[in-house]
Design goal:
Blueprint: E1 7-13, H1 19-36, E2 39-45, E3 59-62, H2 66-70, H3 73-80, H4 90-97, H5 99-108, E4 116-120, H6 124-129, E5 145-149, E6 159-161, H7 164-173, E7 181-185, E8 189-197, E9 200-201, E10 205-208, H8 216-220, E11 226-228, H9 234-250, E12 256-264, E13 270-276, H10 286-292, H11 298-309
Parallel strand pairs: 1-2, 1-3
Antiparallel strand pairs: 4-7, 5-6, 5-7, 8-9, 8-10, 8-12, 10-11, 12-13
Helix pairs in contact: 1-11, 3-4, 4-5
């Protein structure tokens, strides 16, 4: 850590569904920075148009989830204020926050990602038309499809769709219909996540959940979710790390991030689902878990993220 970055603001909170996780992440990061012997304050996020107080600090550690922390506008405003911060720049955050943009960039760079269909708002018309209309031909034959918002980082309003009834149920349960949605190919297989810090891939983690998929409950509430070191062949380990770093760089990410993938159980190929530019940093989050597989403490991970930023 550079000597001129002694006073560090840890930005957390916000209004997203991941607010409580952000607060926990922020507290953990703040504690680690204090233990380094540096000055640090927890700054609870208030308003993207009210960031002037951050000019009182030498550096900002962004532990803010959702659009406020990951959509790119925060990073642009910090750049405009000439305030250094952790993580990717505005453009990379904007591209990774929008799943459609992410997929377009991945496909342009020949990186595997599940097929998708953009539908705009999740309207009653979509439900009435059902799954038999021609746009769904690209997915056939399919057992399931995922329906998910184009922009959201908390696994809210993600539904596993198999037939017209499950589509109707999704419409009834959906919290916010008035945003862009997409249908996505269901990859039947194992789920993994790969942490990247300073362009280095950390050990992959396999995510095992008793839920239908890794939804909000599985991420933050259930005690049954397992994060473990996967059993992969040398070739598979090389492939998952290569596709992760290729995706990370294709989206112009920097400093740190987390790439989420599925491995098809039949072909054994890996597919990039999404890239997180501000991953969770609770004691039980995937990034610290991955670092621990290399013998790194939570504090050492925080320091590596800051060092990679400045």
């Amino acid at each position: 850590m550079k000597s001129n970055h002694k006073n560090i603001a840890v930005l957390c909170g916000g209004s997203s569904s991941e607010r409580e996780i952000s607060l926990l992440s922020g507290k953990g990061v703040h504690k680690a920075i204090i233990e380094f012997g540096y000055q640090s304050e927890l700054v609870e996020f208030d308003d993207l148009n009210n960031l002037e107080e951050l000019k009182n600090y030498d550096f900002v550690f962004i532990a803010l989830h959702g659009f406020e922390g990951e959509g790119g506008l925060l990073q642009k405003k910090l750049d405009d204020l000439n305030i250094p911060y952790t993580g990717s720049n505005s453009e990379a955050c904007k591209n990774t926050w929008n799943k459609k943009l992410t997929k377009e960039i991945l496909e342009k760079n020949n990186i595997k990602t599940p097929m998708w269909l953009e539908i705009g708002k999740f309207s009653k018309t979509i439900v009435n038309h059902g799954l038999e209309v021609s746009p769904f031909e690209r997915f056939r034959p399919f057992k399931y499809l995922f329906l998910k918002p184009q922009e959201d980082g908390s696994s809210v309003d993600i539904f596993k769709i198999s037939d017209i009834q499950s589509l109707k149920n999704a419409y009834r349960e959906c919290a916010d219909h008035d945003r862009g949605f997409m249908f996505e190919e269901f990859i039947d297989g194992k789920e993994f996540t790969v942490t990247i810090i300073n362009d280095v891939c950390y050990p992959p983690i396999e995510i095992i959940t008793q839920n239908e998929f890794y939804d909000y409950d599985a991420k933050y509430i259930s005690d049954d979710t397992i994060l473990r070191e996967p059993i992969l062949s040398a070739a598979e380990l090389e492939e998952i790390q290569k596709i992760s770093i290729d995706a990370y760089k294709a989206l112009n990410c920097s400093v740190w991030g987390r790439v989420d993938l599925m491995q098809c159980k039949n072909t054994r190929k890996f597919y990039v689902i999404e890239i997180n530019t501000v991953p969770g940093m609770t004691e039980h989050s995937c990034v610290p878990k991955s670092g621990s597989m290399l013998g790194l403490s939570y504090g050492e991970i925080v320091k590596k993220i800051i060092d990679a930023s400045i």
